UniProtKB/TrEMBL annotation:
NCBIfam families (UniProt xref): vanZ_1 (NF037970)
VanZ-like domain: residues covered: 33-104
Name of the protein in its database record: VanZ-like domain-containing protein
Protein's UniProt keywords contain DNA-binding: no
Transmembrane parts of this sequence: 34-52, 59-78, 90-108
Short name of any one Pfam family annotated for the protein: VanZ
Species per Swiss-Prot/TrEMBL record: Massilia aquatica
Keywords carried by this UniProt record: Membrane, Transmembrane, Transmembrane helix
Domain of life: Bacteria
Length: 109
């Protein structure tokens, strides 16, 4: 198992736990949308490092976006949380930023 996969799995677990935790358990967040952007951007960057480019990477990034959608849907089951399209937009923006820069990531990382 590569270090990227270990970091990816730990980061994904942390993001899922944080997103599915009741609001009253969380500290005040400075900018929720920025956190979504950075979290899903980090996961996308790790995927870009692990997966060869092309359609395989695109499929993995699309799966990551689907995971973000699933998390948002599951938040409806958590007290004090709800589905938010702006969170999904921030997730998508983080993934898209990495997707647009993926050729550079493969060339220099």
């Amino acid at each position: 198992m590569t270090w990227e996969l270990i970091v990816f799995l730990l980061a994904a677990l942390g993001i899922v736990v944080g997103c599915l935790m009741p609001n009253e358990w969380l500290p005040p967040l400075p900018n929720d949308k920025l956190l979504h952007f950075l979290a899903f951007g980090l996961l996308a960057l790790l995927l870009a490092r692990m997966v060869p480019g092309g359609w395989i990477l695109q499929l993995c990034l699309l799966g990551l976006l689907g995971a973000g959608l699933l998390i948002e849907i599951l938040q409806n089951l958590v007290p004090g949380r709800k589905f938010c399209w702006r969170d999904m937009a921030a997730n998508a923006a983080g993934i898209a930023t990495v997707a647009l820069c993926a050729p550079l990531a493969h060339a220099y990382l």
